[in-house]
Design brief:
The protein is of the alpha+beta class. It is built from eleven helices and 35 strands. The longest helix is centred in the N-terminal third of the chain and has 43 residues.
């Protein structure tokens, strides 16, 4: 028994000797796992190099892509720190890029956001360059501390409700101001006096965009501080979302038969949160825009401005912040976009285009206009000098659709009629998004444009009635002499009936186009409305606008009309007007010193312009 125990004991000790190397190997393996985990954690959350430790002469590196998806290292040296360069506590690290590529290309459009490291620690993002017409590799770096403030600022709740309209700017997009380069730095880098730093251009990659579209919308596009260029699209790939610092990322503004995507470089990726650019794209603050993977085909070197030629891949997430020091997004599913269908009908063909645009109060109006115009001029069957009939609807969630319909004929100005269609759609969107009542949500846009290969346009040359003295209830004929663009003048007759309740006296008969009637009789429909109960009432006003392919005969009587919100009260009694005078709180009320007694029209199938005023006496 004791022998058995001794044998067992010896076997036990022998087993311990056998396991000892395994234990050592396991410990080594565990240590390797911990080191690997630490390195992975460090790559997800890079160590920060504080701005306070940045000194002139310090050497560092910047990572960026020149071709394909290969991230390359470029050496740099710190020239100094420009304190409060972009505003209070908004500093910039001034650096000079080193090496053959930097000297050949300079600071390239699309480099915005390229991460800068000192001693292996993330210090910021390359974001600024010297002004145009220089390839001097001098740049400005946005400190990483300033970029990380974007995440903290995004935690502040944004205003909603009636404050929404005050946040909307449908005009010129704000651009970054330039930063003057101090004289002591200019002399050190051999830069000319008066040089300044500007944001590195953001390449605006387009596919399917015709030269005519660029020519007509160049002013709006240039206001975005972007470098417009043709690019391409790449098939979506599961690897698209596996981005890292130094890769390229794009923001999808339009996708489909036409795509429009600004792109810049990723600064860091931390647990699915992406920081990029080092400066704003639009300075919109909180946003919701699709974020896509971008790839560099090549870098085009130029004395004016070198730039990356980029293609865009699949959607990889949502851009959530567009702030002064960086843009920020989250990897995952992208936000929904607005579907846009444009159908162009010509005498020989029908062509359909489908796009999706982002829902943005500031950008959607011009993006829809651009996509609409591009769809019109993109048909080989379309020609300049054609008349266009546009009809369509803007579907709004929870509201009546906004109906659009009008006729557009070319004129003697060097502007294609398709541009007038596009700006008409843009104007409608601007009114919708500028409303002070609620945040609108567009479900879809459907437009149908029919082209006629002639200039259908006529001017009201004269008008008269068969008699100038009438009785209440009597029907008379109004004759309108119309002079077309080419061809013989012709007469159109419009029968009108004097209302039976019309009092004796003098009436005014306005024979005119649609714009004149809207301006004279119904100014609310043209956008000069006061406060309304809500968005639905605004839509009603928009939907009652008159069409410009008709001749209107409008009978007016010299009694006041009271407009309260979207309601029209003709022949307002003096008692109601007195109440209006005494109650200054009726902000939605307006007074017009004429009342509509009757309105008639005749469809002409051509754009009508001009007006004539006649006098009728009721006996």
């Amino acid at each position: 028994m004791a022998r058995f125990a001794s044998r067992e004991s010896g076997g036990y000790h022998k087993s311990l000797k056998t396991l000892a190397p395994l234990k050592r190997n396991f410990g080594l393996l565990a240590a390797l796992v911990l080191i690997l985990a630490a390195s992975l954690g460090a790559s997800d959350t890079p160590e920060i190099f504080p701005l306070s430790q940045v000194q002139p002469g310090m050497k560092g590196v910047v990572y960026t892509v020149f071709t394909g998806d290969e991230i390359e290292k470029v050496d740099l040296v710190v020239l100094g720190v420009l304190h409060n360069a972009l505003g209070p506590r908004q500093d910039v690290i001034l650096v000079q890029l080193l090496g053959e590529k930097a000297e050949h290309s300079g600071v390239v459009a699309g480099m915005s956001g390229s991460p800068v490291y000192f001693d292996g620690k993330l210090a910021g993002a390359l974001s600024l360059k010297l002004g145009v017409f220089t390839k001097e590799p001098i740049g400005g770096v946005t400190p990483i501390e300033s970029m990380l403030e974007v995440e903290r600022d995004s935690a502040t709740p944004s205003a909603t409700g009636k404050a929404f309209a005050q946040q909307v700017n449908t005009g010129v997009i704000r651009s970054f101001a330039h930063v003057d380069l101090p004289r002591e730095f200019s002399s050190r880098v051999s830069a000319s006096a008066g040089e300044f730093l500007i944001p590195i251009e953001t390449p605006l990659i387009s596919t399917g965009l015709f030269p005519e579209t660029i020519a007509q919308f160049s002013k709006e596009l240039s206001g975005w501080s972007m470098s417009m260029m043709a690019g391409g699209t790449a098939p979506a790939s599961p690897e698209d979302a596996q981005i890292k610092a130094g890769d390229m990322v794009g923001v999808e503004l339009i996708r489909g038969d036409l795509s429009l995507t600004p792109g810049c470089t990723v600064t860091s990726v931390d647990h699915g949160r992406v920081l990029a650019c080092g400066h704003p794209i639009f300075s919109f603050g909180s946003v919701s825009m699709p974020m896509a993977r971008a790839h560099v085909l090549t870098t085009l070197n130029s004395s004016m401005a070198s730039t990356k030629i980029i293609t865009t891949g699949g959607t990889i997430g949502t851009l959530t912040q567009d702030r002064s020091t960086a843009i920020m997004g989250q990897l995952g599913d992208g936000p929904p976009m607005i579907p846009v269908d444009v159908t162009l009908v010509t005498p020989v063909a029908e062509k359909k285009f489908h796009f999706e645009v982002i829902e943005s109060p500031q950008l959607t109006p011009v993006l829809v206009a651009l996509a609409t115009f591009n769809g019109i001029v993109g048909s080989p069957a379309y020609g300049e000098g054609w008349t266009l009939h546009m009809e369509g609807d803007i579907d709004l969630k929870g509201h009546t659709p906004v109906h659009l319909e009008n006729l557009f004929a070319p004129n003697d100005m060097p502007v294609p009629s398709g541009f007038y269609v596009a700006t008409n759609v843009q104007s409608a969107f601007a009114r919708i998004y500028s409303n002070p009542y609620e945040t609108p949500h567009v479900d879809g846009i459907h437009l149908r444009v029919t082209a006629v290969a002639e200039r259908r346009w006529a001017m009201i040359d004269n008008a008269w009635t068969e008699k100038s003295e009438v009785q209440p209830g009597e029907t008379i004929s109004v004759k309108v002499l119309l002079r077309p663009y080419r061809g013989a003048p012709f007469i159109e007759e419009i029968p009108i009936t004097i209302p039976a309740q019309t009092a004796r006296g003098t009436l005014e008969l306005l024979v005119s186009d649609a714009d004149t009637v809207n301006r004279t009789v119904d100014p609310l429909a043209l956008g000069s409305e006061g406060p309304l109960p809500g968005l639905e009432q605004l839509i009603r006003l928009m939907n009652r606008e008159r069409q410009n392919d008709r001749v209107y005969a409008t009978l007016l009587q010299p009694t006041p009309t009271l407009y309260i919100e979207d309601k029209v009260m003709p022949n307002a009694p003096a008692s109601e007007i007195n109440v209006l005078d005494q109650r200054q709180s009726l902000g939605g009320a307006r007074l017009l010193h004429q009342s509509l007694a009757g309105e008639w029209s005749a469809e002409m199938h051509q754009v009508i312009t001009g007006e004539r005023t006649l006098t009728i006496t009721v006996k």
